[in-house]
Write a structure and sequence with these properties.
By secondary structure, the protein is α+β, with helices and mostly antiparallel strands. The protein is built from six helices and ten strands, in the order E-H-H-E-E-E-E-E-H-E-H-E-E-E-H-H.
Length: 212
C-alpha cells in the first residue's frame, strides 16, 4: 500500500465498491484475511468536497487536502470498473486548467473561469454559479486492509451529514479482485461508485441504495 510516486505510477485499478448499512460482517472478514498494513493506512479520516454533475458518471471530481483530484472511468469488465487518474493539481488552479481540462468534462455548457488563479473556495463559488452541479460535503473514516495484493477498505461515510457504510476492493489485477470478493462473500453485490452513491443519497438519482 505504498503511495505512488511520479517515477512509479501504478497501473489503472479495477475497483469494486458498494454502499449501504450493516457492513460490519464484511469488515470483520476483511480484518481476518488481511496481512499487516502500514499504520497510516489502518485508519484515515478526511473531509472532502465532491463536485457532482448530472451529465456524467465517468469523471469523479473532488477536493481533498487542497488538491483537485479527478479520476476517469476507462471501462467496465466482469462487473468491475477500471479507473485512472485524469487530473491531480494543487490549488490555486490556473484558469486554463479549469476552462480546458475540468469544466468541459463536467458540463456541456460550462461557465468561464475569468480570473487567472482560483483558490479552492473561489473555485467552489464559481461552480455554485451554475445550478446544474451539486457541491457535496463528505466526511470519510476509512479502515484499510490488503489481501493477495488487493487493497480492501471499510468506511463510514457522511454525505452532507447522512451516514452510510462502504466496502471496496481494488487492484490492477482484475482476477485477484474477483477472488478476494468471493472470499469476502460479496461477489454478487451491486458495484456502484461514489458518484452513483452520492446521487442516490442526495436525490439526484431516483434510485435508492440497495443495501439500506
Amino acid at each position: 500500500m505504498k503511495k505512488p510516486t511520479k517515477e512509479n505510477q501504478p497501473e489503472a485499478r479495477f475497483e469494486f465498491r458498494s454502499f449501504g448499512q450493516d457492513f460490519q460482517p464484511v469488515h470483520q472478514r476483511m480484518a481476518a484475511l488481511s496481512q499487516p498494513v502500514p499504520e497510516e493506512f489502518q485508519r484515515r479520516v478526511s473531509r472532502e468536497i465532491y463536485i457532482v454533475s448530472p451529465f456524467t458518471n465517468a469523471f469523479n471530481c473532488k477536493i481533498r487536502d487542497e488538491k483537485v483530484d479527478i479520476k476517469k472511468l476507462l471501462r467496465t469488465e466482469e462487473g468491475l470498473e477500471q479507473w485512472d487518474v485524469f487530473l491531480k493539481e494543487q490549488f490555486p488552479l490556473k484558469d486554463q486548467t479549469i476552462n480546458e481540462k475540468i469544466l468541459p468534462v463536467l458540463l456541456p455548457q460550462p461557465p468561464v473561469a475569468e480570473k487567472r488563479e482560483y483558490s479552492s473556495a473561489a473555485w467552489v463559488e464559481l461552480l455554485r454559479s451554475t445550478s446544474e452541479l451539486l457541491i457535496i460535503r463528505v466526511k470519510k473514516e476509512r479502515f484499510g486492509y490488503i489481501t493477495d495484493d488487493v487493497i480492501c477498505e471499510f468506511g463510514n461515510v457522511w454525505i452532507n451529514g447522512a451516514r452510510v457504510e462502504t466496502v471496496s476492493a481494488e487492484s490492477s489485477d482484475k482476477n485477484k479482485v474477483l477472488q478476494v470478493m468471493a472470499e469476502l462473500g460479496i461477489k454478487d453485490w451491486e458495484n456502484i461508485n461514489y458518484l452513483q452513491a452520492l446521487k442516490r443519497v442526495t436525490g439526484l438519482s431516483a434510485k435508492r441504495l440497495k443495501y439500506e
